[in-house]
Design goal:
two-stranded antiparallel sheet, 2 helices, 78% helix, elongated
Length: 106
């Protein structure tokens, strides 16, 4: 399966490389009113891509924090449950051993 993922990654890289080579003409980018900046089109596209990634990461940041908190709470609950089960097993073991010793062997 890793080979398939690597092939897909290489194909995506080749598409981006093709876009970069074919979009070398300059465009006017207005970052402030009346302040044009002439940049290659691929730079503008890549900048928009990076800004989109950053906005997406910030949008998911709150959800990530809540999921981490829930994960920590669930881990603590599992540890507590494991300690209770271990305690039950230890207290039940001597009683069951005494029951087995009291029963006659066939």
């Amino acid at each position: 399966m890793k080979i398939v993922y690597n092939i897909i990654k290489i194909l995506i890289l080749l598409v981006f490389l093709l876009l970069a080579v074919s979009n070398t003409q300059t465009v006017s980018f207005y970052y402030l009113p009346g302040q044009p900046l002439d940049l290659p089109l691929i730079v503008v596209l890549f900048g928009a891509f990076v800004i989109g990634i950053l906005f997406g990461m910030f949008a998911l940041f709150g959800r990530l924090l809540s999921l981490r908190g829930e994960n920590g709470r669930l881990r603590a609950e599992v540890k507590k449950s494991a300690r209770v089960n271990e305690h039950d097993i230890q207290t039940a073991s001597p009683a069951s051993a005494a029951d087995n010793a009291a029963q006659p062997k066939a």
